[in-house]
Amino acid sequence: MDDILDGIDQIDCDILVIGGGTAGPMAALKAKRKNPDANVVLLEKAHVKRSGAISMGMDGLNNSVIPGYATPEQYTKEITIANDGIVDQAPIYRYAEECYGIIQELDQFGIRFQKDQNGEYDVKKVHHIGTYVLPMPNGDTVKKALYRQLRKARINISNRFMATRLLTGEGRVAGAICVNTRSAEFLVIRAKAVIMCLGAAGRLGLPSSGYLYGTYENPTNSGEGYSMAYHAGAGLANLECYQINPLIKDYNGPACAYVAGPLGGYTANAQGDRFIECDYWSGQMMQEFYDELQGGKGPVYLKLNHLAEETVSEIERVLHIVERPTRGHFHEGRGTDYRKQMIEMHISEIGFCSGHSASGVFVDRNAETTLKGLYAAGDMANVPHNYMLGAFTNGAIAGTEAVDFIKDVDFANFDMGEVDKERERVLAPTKRDDGIPPNQIEYKTRRLVNDYLQPPKVTAKMMTAQARFEEVRHAMETEMVVKDSHELMRALEASSVMDCADMAASASLYRTESRWGLYHNRVEYAQNDEDWFCHTIMTKGDDGKPSSMKRDVEDYIVPLDEADKVAYANQRVTADTVAAE
Amino acid sequence: MPLAQTSTAVPVVVDDALCIADKGCTVCVDVCPLDVLRIAETADGTKTAYMKYDECWYCMPCETDCPTGAVTVNLPFLLR
């Protein structure tokens, strides 16, 4: 295993789904169910059983729109406001309408959702306006349940294959070039439609621990989706709207205000005082967090030590079993106990992830990108704040829409020269006897991301980043060396990380205003609705470098009134809010 | 440019006495999202799983899915 072998194979399929985490399995299932004759291939660089962001499961749905508790109108309004208005509402509204059906389907898969004594869904309020958070008592079984469904539906699963570039021809997608992560053998897949579900760009910034894989996101999500969409000519939206999250310091897992909040836990400063009104993640909330850290009242803590024993035990039961179960080990090692002291929090490294912010590969309400036949869903597609249920729902939408698309098309012709060129690029580090290993290329890229791209954003620093990235890219292209096929996978990931770093710098320089609180805090520019109430769309320019343009925000389906608009702007606790409690 | 062999303490530890890799089990190797575990031959000729690459998200499928409880996930020292 791990030897570098020489080989290339070609297969054909109707629909290729890349990524076997959350959105991908659902896309494959829905496509197959809608057209049982379709040949659907699900590609995964690890193993579908435990791959992706929800490898160990999830403790709840953050954004369920359940009749009787919330309406699609209310949810669409809330997400619009939480993202400073820069959203196309159509995909959000479609998600909000269809997600309840997906909840019922997940229920049939054996994934249970919390109900109260009356048998009604036990939905909790965490957001500013609406009530959408629904706990999942057996959330640790999600991946197993999905895998059972995939086997039952006889989906063709290809584990251990990593897609490196999309193939295009005749102005649409034609397939993908893939490499085996344990043998370095190539697989060319021709497909009539491709659905990308490759997750977040979680290895963009360097965690403060300095451990390359100690990221907030599952580090297997290293930004290939963004990189491949970019090289194929698809547009990417609002990449300057970074993901930055409030986390348990060093452990770098979520503090889980969504679990602890409804039970009375909250984010506090060093004095133990609440300083943000609402623990729902938004750029404004993160700005307040940052200000508290900088303003002498930090560190910031997760406060649970005022709660009753039964409540703390309940919180531990959820947080230490599902999503990030080593959290209990972490506290044990540190000698920290929710009952006895507050737990230190910090802000995460930067990343791209629509699951929690508003950036990603641009998609319309049908999950289609700007490249014909190419769909995207989950953390890499720009349906804002879509979380796990968004990945499932938008994956389902992508799967069904792709089935409609392939009815009228055959395989697009592509240039075999592209395959040869890609093989040469991929295998270059295997042809060298010595040089720089991928982990050092990646470390340097990500260290520079921290030094120069982390907000507050400064023009001169971001330009310095671009110059330094160019040097590291040159080293990557001419000196990177790998000794086995596993390292080759890491080399390819380092290349995606580098592409994402370039895109982050370029997108942030393009939008000359501040927007989304800390996510795009450009200290030299204030928010400017007149010039910048728009999306920014990045594509690969003719010179091979990122190129940005403005795109109008589509007319709202659900109008906002003036009072709504400021709901997320005023995050800091004031004397008035304290008195009101 | 020669490459150095720098040691790191790995977070995932396998109890050789409990590991049944010798019987053909590869569960932990299969489920790792980062594909960092492998099977090796021990000094007495039996097989056991071990962490070959120090690239761990301390996520736990290897420990949870191991049929004999042979795998323990510790936190990487740098963030412990």
Shape-level CATH architecture of the domain at 416-552 in chain A: Up-down Bundle
Strand sequence of the main sheet of chain B, in spatial order? 1-4
- The portion of residues forming beta strands of chain A comes to 15-25%
- Figure out the total of helices of chain B: 2
Q: Which percent bin holds the helix content of chain B? A: 10-25%
Unreliable parts of chain B: none
With helices defined by DSSP (H or I, 4 residues minimum), what is the helix count of chain A? 17
What name does CATH use for the topology of the domain at 416-552 in chain A?
Methane Monooxygenase Hydroxylase, Chain G, domain 1
Structural Rg of chain A = 23 Å
Oligomer: heterodimer
Order of helices and strands of chain B: EHEEHE
Shape of chain A: globular
- Briefly note the structural class of the backbone of chain A: alpha+beta
For the record, the CATH class of chain B is: Alpha Beta
Q: Can you tell me the residue ranges of chain A where pLDDT is under 50 for at least 5 consecutive residues?
A: none
> What would CATH call the homologous superfamily of the domain at 416-552 in chain A?
Fumarate reductase/succinate dehydrogenase flavoprotein-like, C-terminal domain
Number of distinct beta strands of chain B? 4
Return the average pLDDT of chain A rounded to an integer. 94
Overall geometry of chain B comes to: globular
Task: Sum up the structure in keywords.
heterodimer; A: 581 residues; alpha+beta; Flavocytochrome C3, Chain A, domain 1; Methane Monooxygenase Hydroxylase, Chain G, domain 1; four-stranded antiparallel beta sheet; 17 helices; globular; B: 80 residues; Alpha-Beta Plaits; two-stranded antiparallel ribbon; two-stranded antiparallel sheet; 12% helix; 20% strand
